[in-house]
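Protein folding task:
====================
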Amino acid sequence: MLELLKAVLFGIVEGITEWLPISSTGHMILFNQFVKLNVSEDFWKLFEVVIQFGAILAVVLLFWNKLWPFTTKTVKVHRSKNETGSRFQTKKKVCWKRGALDMWLKIIVACIPAAIVGILFDDLIDELFYHPIPVAVALIVVGVIFIIVETVRGKKRPTTTSIDAITYKEAVIIGLFQLAAAVFPGTSRSGATIVGALMIGVSRATAAEFTFFLAVPVMFGASLLKAAKYILAGIAMTGGEALILLVGTVVAFIVSVFVIKFLMGYIKKHDFKIFGWYRIILGILVILILR
């Protein structure tokens, strides 16, 4: 029961920090310094990534109409011809929604850099940077960048106010910022992509929404990669570990639903500076406590 309670706490941390630009991976690493799950090291590496799958499902649920690229339309099909003229019958035809193919191509383009680096250097990145101090440094650096970008940006009107208006060049730029988060835990995937989007003139709401959409293939791919490595290594998962993973994932899903709704409402009236200050304060505390 104690381990399940810990899994609930980790699910809450994941659900809150995955979508706020404050680094979910960083918080999971730091939280694990104080509330350790009584599991193997291999299972922990699997848990901290696969638990993100619950957060992905929250995005899919809330943005299903925009993410699902297909729709149906009624068309007339020629059936036969007689003296009085042609006869037709109607049938449903599956087709792409308007703009859906273009949107998904932009998402794929933005995900390519992080996907390549993640596949090639996943283990090396874990070894070098998945430690409290590198996470703390990343928290502080990106926090400072957030404050600078929002200060410089000020009251300037954004030039891109919808995902349809994002160009492929802008998608590549946002993808490169996402790459930084893939390499340096504590950077925050959502934080990096939002900062990158703001810097090139994308509105806050559009930046956040595009970040949510990017998370679907990126986080699903990361979860699949970790699970595949775990299975191929021949490591057996106990029933207790499977239950811990399930509980953490479900809690992350439920919490994510509320956090995403909160963030989309919050940024309509506020900027991201508060998250920048939070990151700086947290990073300093981590260095002072864990140095």
About this structure: Residues 107 and 233 are 31 Å apart (CA to CA). The chain has one domain: 2-70+97-290. Strands lie at 70-82, 85-96.
